[in-house]
Amino acid sequence: MSTRESRRVLAELLWAEKYRPRSLSEIVNQEDIVKRLYQFVKEKNMPHLLFAGPPGTGKTTAAHCLAHDLYGEDYRMYMLELNASDERGIDVIRTKVKEFARSRLPANIPFKIVLLDEADNMTADAQQALRRLMEMYVDVTRFILIANYPSKIIEPIQSRCAVFRFTPLKKEDVMTRLKYICEQEGVKYEEEALDIIFEISEGDMRKSINILQSSAALGKVTVANVFKVVGLAHPREVREIIKTALAGNFIKARDLLRTLMLNYGLSGVDVVKQMHREIFSSEIQLPEHVRVEIADYIGEIQFRLVEGADDEIQLNALLAKLTLIGKTHHTVKATSR
Amino acid sequence: MSERKLPWVIKYRPKKIADVVNQNDAKQLVLKWIKEWFAGRPSRKAALFYGPPGCGKTSLAEAVAREYGLEYLEMNASDYRRASDIERIAKIAVMQRGLFAKGKLILLDEVDGMSRVADRGAMEAILDLIKITKSPLVMTANDPWDPNLRPLRESVLLVPFRRLTKTDIKRALARICELERIRCDDDAIKYIANKAEGDLRSAINDLQAIAEGYGRVTLSAVKAVLRARDRVYEPFEVVRKIFISKYAWQAKLAASQTDLSPDELIQWINENLPKQISNPEDLWRAYDALSRADVYIGRIVRTGSWDLLAYAMELMTAGVSLAVRTDVKSKYRWVKYSFPQKILIMARTKEVRQIREDLAAVIARHLRISKRLAKSDVIPYLVAIFESNPEYAASLAVGLNLSDSMIKYLSQRNSNRIIELTKKIREQIAREAREESRKEPPEAEAAVKTEAEAPKTKKVRRRKKKEGAGLEAFFKK
User: Fold this and answer.
1) Is A334 contained in some domain?
2) Residues A24, A161: one domain?
3) Looking at CA atoms only, how far is residue B171 from chain A in angstroms?
């Protein structure tokens, strides 16, 4: 045990993976869903599945656990995992997925599984192609689709799937898990710090564990360390950019934006979403109706980001809007921090 | 000395048909056609040689004339602008081949240069000429589908010329260097050939300019000459013209006078717009137009509908300049423009971005999430760890099997120390594994699991073999 312990310290993994449940029996929440999934394992049969729900609520984990319980330790041999966010085009569906779906069924299993994570990021064309595959090869291949927003999955696919709605995790579930991890890792923690981690991660288990791990890397999970880590990970640059633009300095705001995107490799949509959050934070003083006005334009820009070609140009348009609003509403004061 | 003054494009003009670089298909067509003339039964009286500039259209006509002993009469575009000019040519064209007089080959260069309005009547005159000519008539054009040439297309032999390859051009340049006894570096020639975009004439002109300016052709000399000519000044001018336009057509015209591509041009405007325009209202209106132009470009890129380009161009030029309505004077201020930082940054950070992509892929696989999520949600926390706790960072780096460049990406402060530590950890793991296997073999199975080591490979392989082709074949790929 002692040698194993020392080794674990030698080569560390990300806790979000290290403490991921491997089997359905290890999943502590989403009881109703787990119960129904158990049934599939027992019967060795299942329909196509659609797991929907907010991030970090255990959708991907549940899918892996299900496959694990169906096929045993080597379950990944019988499952094709794709992340539609990275491979979202129709070509992937037509080649990779199709080839896997039609490949011969090994004698020892009832069906193969295609796991399509972030399926709501698939293009409409790809979804249409997918729908046909789901019909054609249903006897040998079952699909598990995972999505944050099930409404972005086309109707014909939804109607072919058993839909499982994952609910946001309860605070006590997240807290229990975080405490369990701390005990396993021999990490000291402040109760209040865990509270704050839950608040920041908005119930997203994976995010909570990420914050926990990096706070622990500072020595102890204290409130101060949590804030320090979050500060390091999410610098106030976005807020700074907004304030600079509101103060009328467009060019400086643009320079800051470039540095931010360069240093963090953020996509335009990432930045826009962060800006959206900031606009409604108390750190930025704005008349309430102006917050809504800005939110409307942020939404418009997010739409154009998806349609357009160059993230920076779209974000610059947003900065120009902020500059204009800053000038129009002299009441706007940029307080620091 | 005087020989040096002769432009090489003329000095090294192909003397024989065989000297014309490439264009075998065109040669065959033309030779067959000329033979028909000599047999007295030409299927077509005129031929239209078409293809990109500098690919050998005129050269081939000249070489044919020379090889077949025909008198070569070349008419430049300015010679046959008006109907009366063509009639003058016609008088020559209808002359019979006399006993002593040589046959003729008449070349009308660049017929697509005629404008429908200004050169009215010229096209009819050419069509008449084709009917009556008793000598082979050759015309050249870059774009045979020019609407002006429609009446012509039906009555001539169409001879397509292909764009010359870089290899063709390199070979031709090297030959000239040899004949001129000039020292030429391979990479220099390659550079010229790349820039030439299939235009041998311009490549030879470049070669001569450099050789005469520098005495020999080196890469640095080539760059010095060709870069200087390379639109360094031009985009600034274009941007200025767009900004000061009063009318939409002015702005659109300005954009047509550049060889910047639409996505380059939009970057030039994006970069310099806030320098020129300071009034927030104007700035926002201008950026809103630019943003919509970018949406059209995005749609073009995604769907390939180049039809939309017109709208993109209008919004990024006229849309921007006419957005300035509150502080109109600001348009005319003199401002120093700069090269688009975005383009510079993208070039400078290519390597870093690649490392980030690779790192995101490692994490995405590990946590079973998308690369996008890895970049936005996980890498920032790794940075926090790597910047604050080198020891722990090192053990993570080993566990996730990160490369040194990934470690450097994650920590600017501690990277050397972390890399140092990972080496030690790896050595220790190896040492312990050795000891373990010596001491008690069964325990060895508990060896460290790292993500990269794929712990189950052995078992998996054995199992796989049993189960036949289907899935195995799939995963092998």
Assistant:
1) no
2) yes
3) 40
Ramachandran class of B65: left when φ > 0, alpha when ψ lies in -120 to 50, beta otherwise: alpha
Q: How far apart are CA B164 and CA B23, in angstroms?
A: 8
**Do both B117 and B203 map to the same domain?**
no
pLDDT tens for B95-141 read 766 555 568 888 888 787 665 555 667 778 888 888 888 888 999 98
Inside any domain, residue B150: yes
* Interface predicted TM-score (ipTM) of this complex, two decimals: 0.82
Residue B260 has pLDDT above 90, yes or no: no
Cβ burial A157-193 (10 Å sphere, 16+ → b, else e) = bbebbeebebebbeeebbbebbeebbeebebebeeeb
Residues in chain B: 477
- From B284, B297, B379, residue closest to A320, measured CB to CB: B284
Judge whether A203 lies within some domain.
yes
Q: Is B448 in Cβ contact with A11 (below 8 Å)?
A: yes
Question: Would you call A307 and B292 a contact, using CB atoms and an 8 Å cutoff?
Answer: no
Domain count along chain A: 3
Of the three residues A127, A143, A165, the one that is the final residue of a domain is: A165
B449, B463, B468: residue with CB nearest A104: B468
Domain shared by A176 and A69, yes or no: no
Strand stretches in B226-359, DSSP E: none
Q: What is the CATH number of the domain that holds B141?
A: 3.40.50.300
CB of B455 within 8 Å of a chain A CB? The answer is: no
Domain span including residue A180: 171-233
In a domain, B318, yes or no: yes
Total-model pTM: 0.60
The Cα B275–Cα B58 span in angstroms is 48
List B residues 273-312 in contact with A (Cβ-Cβ < 8 A): 274-275, 280-281, 283-284, 286-288, 290-292, 294-295, 297-299, 301
B197 and B91 share a domain? no
Contacts of residue B46, defined as CB under 8 A and 6 or more positions apart, other chains included, come to B130, B133, B136, B137, B138, B139, B155, B156, B157
- The proportion of chain B whose per-residue pLDDT surpasses 70, expressed as a percent, equals 85
List the beta strands (DSSP E) in B112-171.
137-141, 156-160
Chain A residues in contact with B269 by the CB 8 A cut-off are none
Hey, of A222, A255, A310, which one would you mutate to test binding to chain B, going by the most B CBs within 10 A of its CB? A310
Under 8 Å between Cβ of A98 and A132: no
Two tokens, residue A117: 């994570």
How many C-alpha atoms does A306 have within 13 Å on its Cβ side?
8
Is A316 at the interface with chain B, CB within 8 A? yes
Q: How confident is the model at residue B465, as a pLDDT?
A: 40
The reply to whether A309 touches chain B by the CB within 8 Å rule is yes
Sheet holding A79-83, edge to edge: A79-83, A112-117, A141-147, A48-52, A161-165
- Report how far residue A185's alpha carbon sits from residue A182's, in angstroms, rounded to the nearest whole number: 5
Q: What are phi and psi of A80, to 5 degrees?
A: -100, 120
